[in-house]
Amino acid sequence: MIKKKITHFGYEAITKEEKGKKVNAVFNSVATNYDLMNNLMSLGLHHVWKKILIETTTLKPKSKILDIAAGTADISIEFLKKNKDFEIFHTDINLSMLKEGKKKLINQGKIVPSILCDAESLPFPNNYFDCVTIGFGLRNMTNKEQALKEIYRVLSPGGKVIILEFSKIWGPLKKAYDIFSFKIVPKLGKLFAKDEKSYKYLVESIRVHPDQNKLLALLKAQGFEKTSFMNLSAGIVAIHKGYKF
User: Fold this and answer.
1) Cα 106 to Cα 17, 62, 101, distances in angstroms
2) Are 161 and 190 in contact (CB under 8 A)?
């Protein structure tokens, strides 16, 4: 009898096969209210975090950028505001999220490829991109190691990965943060998105995601060098970076 591999969907232990379907259902549900809920849950801070990601990323003109789990396209748009000559690929595994992002891109006059694809099996050649970004998407992936392996493959030598993700908050703030996360966020989801269950999952997914040092170790294990992280908002989120040489 073949033993099925177990992963987590929030706090629930499920098979890896089940996780993909459940995560897809979550984002089908939240897509149309995703930006509104991001503003409510982060008190608008997610815009600041994304701008810091952009401003701390040095790239040559006409760099090729792969935006993974790009969803509603905030990071893609901010890169194009910084330099309209960047060649950006806006990608997501969830069609509903990809459509929301494409609408926003078009409304802002940004015409870039929007591609439905799985980060764990990227449809791009080796050594192609100068930069790969993931904003709040890595924790939802079934096999993070495989996704990082694929990112390493498609990066050109000298290229960098940049990951913006929820992480481990500074200890003295943990109690207040947990109250907000577990008591307030699901209620906001129920009130504004008519979906309490999905936001309960999203809160739990943060708690089972690797913390700053564990994610750093995952990057190193896949061959990335000069790895680092920078905490934002007392560690509520962190920006991780790694390079391919």
Assistant:
1) 34, 20, 9
2) no
Half-sphere exposure of 173 (CA within 13 A, CB side): 10
Among all chains, which residue has been given the structure tokens 């498609």?
A: 154
pLDDT digits (tens, 9 = 90+) for 66-94: 999 999 999 999 999 999 999 999 999 99
pLDDT category of residue 190 using cuts at 50, 70 and 90: very high
In angstroms, how far is the first alpha carbon of the chain from the final one? 42
> Are 38 and 73 in contact, with CB atoms under 8 Å apart?
no
**Residue 1 pLDDT:** 47
Q: Which two tokens stand for residue 28?
A: 């089908």
Is the pLDDT at 126 greater than 80? The verdict is: yes
* Residue-wise burial string across 179-198, b where 16 or more C-beta atoms lie within 10 A, e elsewhere: eebeeebbebbeeebebeeb
Half-sphere exposure of residue 225, counting CA atoms within 13 Å on the CB side? 5
Residues whose CB falls within 8 Å of the CB of residue 12, separated by 6 or more in sequence, listed in order:
none
